[in-house]
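Posting this for the archive.
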Amino acid sequence: MVFCGRTSSKGLLRHLEPVNEQTPNPITPRWITALESAGAEGRKGLAVLVDPDKVKDSHDLDWMSNPGFEAVHTVLLGGSLVTEGSMDTVASWIRERTNTPIVLFPGSPSQLTAEADALLFLSVISGRNPEALIGKHVEAASRVRELGLDAVGCGYMLIDGGRTTTAHYMSGSLPIPGDKPDIAATTALAGHYLGQQCMYLDTGSGADRPVSGDMIAAVRDAVPCPIIVGGGITTPDEVMDAWAAGADLAVVGSAIERDPHFLQAFVTEAERQG
């Protein structure tokens, strides 16, 4: 896996620095701790989101064997609505291919597996739906403990990305308007005061546009914890723009589903800009 350093507000890549490349288990000692440490050093990461419903057999993950995969810091596993895919099976297929940390990104309490390294315990702080704020968490808590999962409190903020996405619909809440960075910043600050260990700004899979740089920057100014940004990121430049604005981890999902060579293109562009 790699973290990427930045040198300017334009998000120019400084270097691709391998981290723990030869270590059997790269998590030291917790996934969130490693992310916090990297952020303190100004290093940025790339995450890929794997939707179990889109993985019908192990060969659907062959892109993880491509040369560009060394650029990936985290594999997020889950989705807003998983109806067919097996979390256990897909996680084991991922584990066969890489030692990169697997972090659960669950849309419901049913999306849990002991095969993961950590769990984003997502609370939809951008909405007012009590089930998404705490209700589902109560349902899941005992199971999380039984599985021995490393639960990471995460303030999940849905952002308007130009269209209604599955994440918006399933959460039963309205997203924060994309042109209101002040609302996002104060929401994140409230989440931080409530003890959330990281913030996740998301326009949802397949969004027309990603979270704006102004909004990411406003949240970065408001909270000291790691910031994850996803939804609508379809090009290497958009990954690096998110980094430049203040994201610690940029998430790509649909773009890889459409183009398995996305990661190779990302590495090429990162090296060109570096």
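Confidence is low (pLDDT under 50) at residues 6-28. Residues 96 and 150 are 21 Å apart (CA to CA).
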